[in-house]
Amino acid sequence: MIGRSITMSETQEAVGERLLMIPGPVPVAESIREALAQPTLGHRDPQFVAHFRSALHKLLRLVDGADALPVIVAGSGTLAMEMALLNTLPAQAPILIATQGVFGDRMRQIADTLGLETDEVRAEMGQAVTPEQLQVALQQRRYNAVTLTHVDTSTGTMVDLRALAGVIKAQQPEALILVDGVCATGGVPEYMDAWDIDLILAGSQKALGLPPGLALLIVGPRAQAARRALARVPSYYGDWERWRPIMENPDGYFATPATNLVVALDRALAMIFEEGPEARFARHEAMARGLRRGLAELGFESFAATEHQAPTLSVLRYPSGVDAGQLLRDMYNQGIVIADGIGKLAGQVCRIGHMGNIGAREILQVVDTAERVLGGGRANGSAMRAARAALQETGLSET
């Protein structure tokens, strides 16, 4: 049996609360909510300092970044994206953005705002950037850095991070490899040292299983050196060198951290290691398989190409003849919150998250609700049978 299936009582605060199945924020497990609900500690309180130090250590363990600098600050994943570029690249530095959706495009917008010289390598919608595409792009010019979106939440696509990092290392070994792991970190493997990744950035509200509010960076030695080479960073709060003394010894002060969220992060990371990272990654794969198999019986089709589907969310074309807005409203009224597409895909696809600390029960609840909401000839039980069979094949239990 793989992973741990969190029960509904652990992810929902009260009877009748809607199940949040968008691709972030995600349901928050009971033990994490309990950590959040503890009396607020002062940022110099020894108990808080111990939690902060523990969370920093666990964050490095999660991505195998032995010599990296972990940075945890109040903010969103977008702040982490901006900090990644601010601290590693001088103005007008050439940067290659690999994009397969809205969030790769956002990285380019941030780079343009910071005055960097941006080029992009772009996958077709529903595809992911491939090693072959990247090889061609890297032949055009020398770059200070290449950014990779591990999972793009707009399209549900995931790149082969290890393969892409290998291409960059082989063709331009001096280029920094900067990874947007917002919808990946904690839900799929990311091995910083083994894969020669220089920086991974994330947010708290997706596969880590926390509410929104924390921007996370794991900064490898080469990225740290790039910051030291800069004469200045055009940001006060976003300069990680100002944060470094706190990250190396949390018993200090630069700016007040989000104390309750940091305590909860320590608990969330502990849950990952209690389950086991590999078991957790397998659970995410199993949930994805069960959801997609069940909803396929109702006429949903994956937008992402099969070989590029992410385990942390599913982006699905609506069944033929189904009104997207009505389906979303009906699901909401039945207690399930899923998301419409964003950008050019609005009204064409729905996005369903299956990451963090949920399990088979939540997947089956989504499938069952969709089957009942769509009704008609679709409501014959085939979707639930298919989802259950897929979950059983993976060994993910409903209990």
Can you lay out the helices and strands and say which pair or pack?
Layout: H1 8-11, E1 19-20, H2 30-36, H3 46-63, E2 69-74, H4 77-86, E3 94-99, H5 102-113, E4 117-122, H6 131-138, E5 145-149, E6 151-152, E7 157-158, H7 161-171, E8 176-180, E9 199-203, E10 214-219, H8 221-229, H9 240-248, H10 259-275, H11 277-296, E11 301-302, E12 313-317, H12 324-333, E13 336-337, E14 339-340, E15 349-353, H13 360-374, H14 382-394
Parallel strand pairs: 1-13, 3-4, 3-5, 5-8, 8-9
Antiparallel strand pairs: 2-10, 6-7, 9-10, 11-12, 12-15, 14-15
Helix pairs in contact: 2-10, 3-10, 4-5, 6-7, 10-11, 11-13, 11-14, 13-14
Walk me through the structure.
- The chain has 399 residues and is an alpha/beta fold.
- The protein folds into 2 domains: 8-29 and 276-394, Aspartate Aminotransferase, domain 1 (Alpha-Beta Complex), CATH 3.90.1150.10; 38-273, Aspartate Aminotransferase, domain 2 (3-Layer(aba) Sandwich).
- Helices cover 41% and strands 15% of the residues.
- The strands form 4 sheets. The protein has a 7-stranded mixed beta sheet with strand order 2-10-9-8-5-3-4, with helices on both faces. Strands 11-12-15-14 form a 4-stranded antiparallel beta sheet, covered by helices on one side. A two-stranded parallel sheet has the order 1-13.
- A hairpin with an 8-residue loop joins strand 14 and strand 15 (349-353).
- Helix 3 (46-63) packs across helix 10 (259-275) and helix 11 runs antiparallel to helix 14 (382-394).
- The longest helix has 20 residues, at 277-296.
- The protein starts with 7 loop residues before the first helix and ends in a 5-residue tail after the last helix.
- The model is unreliable at 3-15 (pLDDT under 50).
